[in-house]
Each structure stands twice: as C-alpha cells, then as structure tokens.
Amino acid sequence: xxxxxxxxxxxxxxxxxxxxxxxxxxxxxxxxxxxxxxxxxxxxxxxxxxxxxxxxxxxxxxxxxxxxxxxxxxxxxxxxxxxxxxxxxxxxxxxxxxxxxxxxxxxxxxxxxxxxxxxxxxxxxxxxxxxxxxxxxxxxxxxxxxxxxxxxxxxx
Length: 156
Fold this sequence. Notes:
Elements: H1 12-22, H2 29-32, H3 52-58, H4 60-72, H5 84-89, H6 95-122, H7 128-148
Helix pairs in contact: 1-6, 3-4, 4-7, 6-7
C-alpha cells in the first residue's frame, strides 16, 4: 500500500499502526525474539507462534472480526496467495467506497492490535462483538466528521 495511508477517512492513530504493520515492524514476539531471547508462542491462543499474520488475520478472534466486518461492508475478494494489501488495491467502484474500505481495514488492524495488547499488558480480554461494534462506530463517526465539518474548520 502506498498513498492509501494518507486517506483522510482513516483515523490518524489507525494510520500509524497500519503503516507499522505494512512495514512489518510491529513489535510481535517472533520479531522481538531476533533481538533478545524470549518465548514466541502467542499469548492469546497459547498454541501457535506469534507473528503479524497470526495475530491480525489467522487467529479465530481476528477471523471472526473480519467475517463480521465483511458481512457489514463489501470488501474486495482476496485471491489465493494475494495479500490483503494487494486485494485492497483492486477496489472498484466509487471513491467513497475505497475511502471507507481503507478506513475499515485500518480500524480492524488497529483494534485487533489493541485487543492483543490489552491481553498482554492489562490481562483484559475484549469480546469480539464489542470490538466489531467499536470499529463500526469509529468509522461512522469519522465519516460524519468529514462530511459535517468543512476542510477549513478541521484541525486534523
């Protein structure tokens, strides 16, 4: 992904985490293990190695969130062997549709990462239905903000 990160529909904190993910620099256990000796088993499922694909896409929790968001919004289909980033680049339709799709994707990355960190650092689990509700609410609010306030009145 390139300029999609600059999309005004994406909330800035979501942009930041999504950009770090795209650079493959999220501080996940398999990456941190290259610098210091540590356990690389996922703290959430306790069965597989923790890498960015596992945390954000392959875990049951992440897949459930993704399926619910896909039932709410029409995402481009992902071809076999194609990355999520490449499938997002194949969006067809209106510019508004691509803006909203990028915003939902970035919010999903951000909130799944947040849920992972809540478990590790605060020992709190966020139910997936709550996470889905927050993602939808955040994206809706961002869209309403951009529609209601003219560019010259925005501080972001």
